[in-house]
């Protein structure tokens, strides 16, 4: 949109930001116009003569960039809000340039395994969020066979664990159950994301975890991930499920 077309609408801009702008992978001198909370134009600075209620000239060294999307965020509300809830999590996101976060199905309690849990989370988030929000659903043994309604309710996909999740209310899947989940999710074109550590390998290396980082690293060797990834890839070939490891 150019300056002339802005004038033709008869609606003044609320804000113009001028200076170094990152757009389409290139930093250039530009003007970004905002109207009613939405970007109305991005044009070379010299082409924009429209007036606005407010104008901001970026300082040297400042660059205006598109908002970042963080697709893996654990906001622990409801149930563990004292860890971090939607208020502080989304304030922190915006302060760091993240304008959209996709919330994981745990460690909130209840976890996002059902439509009711999803709607509860949305109702809690709505009056507190400072950025755009999306939600992952979860899959464990408790909701196998009942994933389609959660997908239809608007989750971006389903998260599962092959090893313990770290919270009692969110279980892990065996490889047999994983195959069932993948067939179900593939049937409606959904998406699965997997915490991929083989439980047998983990058990074999559990040992004693001491105060050193090395002892922890040795308890979760790369073979745990490699074994799980190999088995997952075979299941992807068999089921056609869209899968992210």
Label this structure with key terms.
single chain; 245 residues; 8 helices; disordered N terminus
Descriptive overview:
- The protein has 245 residues and is α/β, with parallel strands linked by helices.
- The chain has eight helices and twelve strands.
- It has helices at residues 3-9, 86-95, 115-125, 148-152, 175-187, 199-205, 213-219, 222-239; strands at residues 13-23, 26-35, 38-44, 52-57, 63-64, 68-73, 98-103, 132-135, 137-138, 158-161, 191-195, 242-244.
- The strands form three sheets. Strands 1, 2, 3, 4 and 5 form a five-stranded mixed sheet that branches.
- Helix 5 crosses helix 8.
- It is elongated, with a radius of gyration of 23 Å.
- The protein starts with a helix and ends with a strand.
- Mean pLDDT is 92; it is low at 1-8.
Unreliable runs: 1-8
Quickly count the helices.
8
Arithmetic mean of pLDDT: 92
Query: Termini separation (Å)?
Result: 41 Å
Biggest β-sheet strands, sense, barrel: 5 strands, mixed
Into which percentage range does the β-strand content fall?
25-35%
Question: Compute the gyration radius: what is it?
Answer: 23 Å
Question: What is the N-to-C order of secondary-structure elements (H for helix, E for strand)?
Answer: HEEEEEEHEHEEHEHEHHHE
Shape: elongated
Estimate percent helicity. 25-40%
What's the total count of β strands?
Answer: 12
Which structural category fits the helices and strands?
alpha/beta
